[in-house]
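Hi, can you check this record?
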Amino acid sequence: MTMGNPDCGDHQWLQISLTSAQLVSVRFTHDIYTRAVSGKHWISADSVDFAIGPGERVKLSAGLALIDGEGLLQLEPVRAQKQHPAYPSHGRCPCCSNARQRH
């Protein structure tokens, strides 16, 4: 597992590397986006099953999710996906002081 904030202190994510026959259960208190970085993954949450591959993501409601598959998967709180308001005239992102960039 890797935890990080690649661009900004407000961006939080968890990266999970799964190998064949691994099953992970994750409980979260906020809605999250689950994105497949590589491989194929099966996710079961709220009695609904999802199958996702590289570049695909699903939004999961707060609660428990069972995750199976092989490859890299990123979990990120929905609130971290918000778009920043217009940048101030000095061209810096208000949340992290990075030069203008898309988050």
The longest strand covers residues 63-77. The radius of gyration is 15 Å. Confidence is low (pLDDT under 50) at residues 81-94, 97-103. The chain has one domain: 2-81.
